[in-house]
Write a structure and sequence with these properties.
Strand order of the largest sheet: 3-2-1-4-5-7-6
Strand content: 15-25%
Largest sheet: 7 strands, mixed
Bound molecules: S-adenosyl-L-homocysteine, 3,4-dihydroxybenzoic acid, magnesium ion
Low-confidence stretches: none
Helix content: 40-55%
Shape: globular
Distance between the termini: 38 Å
Oligomer: single chain
Order of helices and strands: HHHEHEHEHEHEHEE
Number of helices: 8
């Protein structure tokens, strides 16, 4: 029933865009894992970016560029998306997908371990971002939150994918390092004095979720 509702919402609310569809096909054809955000979650990212008026965005975890297409298409003409990706192969596919959409001029792809890239950004005094979307390795989430707090300003949004993991995050005794890292991340996000947070369940093949936090 939930997958039917998900596809009902998609057909009703997500405009068909051949360039977005082709991006998913190219990523699959290149053998990338099919772990991009769903069309409905992409639409939600786009709306959050638009509603917040974000001009400078940071993505951690680019893959084939599907979520980056949604975020970059919400940018104003002079806006910018910096996106971090470990795998050269993923970045190459993403670059082509963004180019095809005419969005590449607004996107800066930095290939390498995100922690290293983020350290370099902090060291270089990178101007603050209005929106950060965390979606790379799940064990890195607590560290990515620390960096997000250093690279944002009051009013910025911090978003993170995969914070529900089929409900496994509700298990306080979980030993899986991914579940433990996400639980720690969610706890820090929810209890941080400078953040106002909600976790939004998101239906795909399984139940997952998007964290939405706003810096006070
Ligand atoms: N945001 C994408 C999906 C990202 S999947 C979308 O919705 O379309 C997670 C990505 O994070 C993968 O491409 C993976 O290669 C990348 N990744 C994993 N560990 C990383 C690290 N340490 N630094 C940067 N990227 C990493
Ligand atoms: C998976 C899904 C994701 O959205 C992601 O970023 C990483 C992994 C998964 O379902 O395995
Ligand atoms: Mg994800």
């Amino acid at each position: 029933m939930l997958t039917e509702v998900d596809s009902y919402i998609e057909h009703l609310c997500v405009p068909h865009d051949e360039v977005f569809e082709q991006a998913l096909r190219e990523a699959a054809a290149a053998g990338l894992p099919e772990i991009h955000v769903s069309p409905n979650e992409g639409r939600l990212l786009y709306l959050l970016a638009k509603i917040s008026g974000a001009r400078r965005m940071l993505e951690i975890g680019l893959l084939g560029g599907y979520s980056a297409l949604w975020l970059a298409s919400a940018l104003p003409a002079d806006g910018k998306l910096v996106t971090l990706e470990l795998e050269d192969k993923h970045a190459t596919v993403a670059r082509q997908n963004l180019e095809r959409a005419g969005l590449l001029p607004k996107v800066e792809i930095r290939v390498g371990d995100a922690r290293r890239s983020l350290e370099a950004m902090v060291r270089a005094g990178e101007p603050a971002f209005d929106l950060v979307f965390i979606d790379a390795d799940k064990e890195g989430y607590p560290a990515y939150l620390d960096f997000a707090l250093r690279l944002t300003h009051p009013g910025s949004l911090i978003l993170a994918d995969n914070v529900i993991r089929d409900g496994r995050v509700t298990d306080a005794s979980a030993t899986d390092p991914i579940v433990r890292a996400i639980r720690q991340f969610n706890q820090e996000l929810a209890s941080h004095p400078d953040l106002e947070t909600i976790l939004l369940p998101i239906m795909r093949n399984k139940l997952d979720g998007l964290a939405i936090a706003r810096r006070r």
